[in-house]
Amino acid sequence: MEMTGTLSYGAAYETKVEQQIKTIFANYIKSDGLFKDRNVLSSTWVPNRILHRDAEVLQISSLLAPALRGYKPNNVFVYGTVGTGKTITTVSVLNELNKAAKANKRDVKAIYLNCKMKRVSDTEYRLLAQLIREFGEAVPETGLSTASLYQKFFDAVKGKHVIICLDEIDALVNKIGDTFLYNLTRSEQSLSIIGITNNLSFFDNLDTRVKSSLGEEEIIFKPYNAVQLKDILMSRVGQAFSMPVDESIISKIAALAAQEHGDARRALELLRVSAEFAERNGDSVITESHVDFAAERIDHDRITEAIKGQPKQSQAVLASIFAVKDSAANGGSWKDTRVLSTDVYAMYRKICERVGLKSLTQRRVSDLIGEFETFGVIETRVISRGRYGRMREIIVHLNEQMKLKVQKLLAEEGL
DNA sequence: AGTCCACAGGAAGGGCAGGCGA
DNA sequence: TCGCCTGCCCTTCCTGTGGACT
């Protein structure tokens, strides 16, 4: 969008729109509305006390404690689905460890790195460079060989007890392989690694030597239940909002989030978006309908964004799933009809022909269907129909309303 | 009990685009 | 700028599989 110079509109438009914009800005400046501090509802905000993770905090602390007495802690592998508190729990223990080390003058350093950070820690070079910078040494963006970076890093580490926490370690390994981990775990220095991931199968694909060394200790974070989510939300309400929030609203949000996967990130997001709805409506408290709106909005955004970002082929596959489901439902209940991969592929071929798209092989389409499963749009399971073969049954996780929206979106893409 | 269906999904490799070092 | 490397998408080939049918 061009933002230079003065743009000119019709005079009437100008006065009306300008007035609106002024009002919005003025209202915003006057107060942060219902919010006192929005950051409190961010999933990365680390609270003073982490609720319902006492056992995990204790476990991680006692695993890392040996560093304070000059021993090398075991490597730890932390696993849990999204929003189970893996990161904030680990980070807060690392913070405490650093504090304790400083207070007792121990040469212990705990470093946290998110491996998904683009341009910071997504290649071997950048990751090493980032680690070296943590020790206050300058490293050029590019130019050094990886070997000399390793040398620099091991020099920096020498004599210290270093704990490196690699969050989303699966993303790292997918990108640069596991030699990096191998090199670190094999080092002579007192170097411990905490790997955090929500992808358990990732662990199985590692080099066996890395696996045995990284998996010295394993900690699994279970999803929160509704009661725990409620506690977590309640603990943040006071700091986040300048308004009171009814307990029944919190319960509702907790229940919704627990239904899904016990995901605290989602619970917090629901609370924040509900409040934003209330605020935009000019209401002074959150009501149930705000929560309903928020839940629908979040679902909608998540799914439509996921679909919009897909390549044409994937969109065609999704359109095929919908088309088969529609014809199978045949005016009956959309919700209960199930779809078979065979039919989807046949429909996909037809759609490709119609829109002039080169059709992919069944093998590939099978993988594309699998990808939609990771978005949570569909769920599949392998069924056998005896003499009539073995195939995947596809269950679509969208209500009628969402379905119409997605179909509209696909239609806009020409499918 | 054995056969056979029709796809799931692993393995290997081709082709292409984009990134990177020289 | 060029050539090499790497990652990604996709195909081909292949083995495995649960249960209806014979």
Give a description of the structure.
By secondary structure, the chain is of the alpha/beta class. The protein contains 17 helices and eight strands. It has helices at residues 11-30, 54-64, 86-103, 124-134, 146-157, 169-176, 179-185, 200-204, 208-214, 226-240, 247-260, 264-280, 288-308, 312-329, 341-355, 362-375, 400-412; strands at 76-80, 108-114, 161-167, 190-197, 217-221, 339-340, 378-384, 390-396. The strands form two sheets. A five-stranded parallel sheet has the order 2-3-4-1-5, sandwiched between helices. Strands 6-8-7 form a three-stranded antiparallel sheet. A hairpin with a 5-residue loop joins strand 7 and strand 8 (390-396). Helix 10 crosses helix 11 and helix 14 (312-329) packs across helix 16 (362-375). Residues 1-6 have low confidence and may be disordered. The chain binds a DNA duplex (22 and 22 nucleotides) through helix 15, helix 16, strand 7 and strand 8.
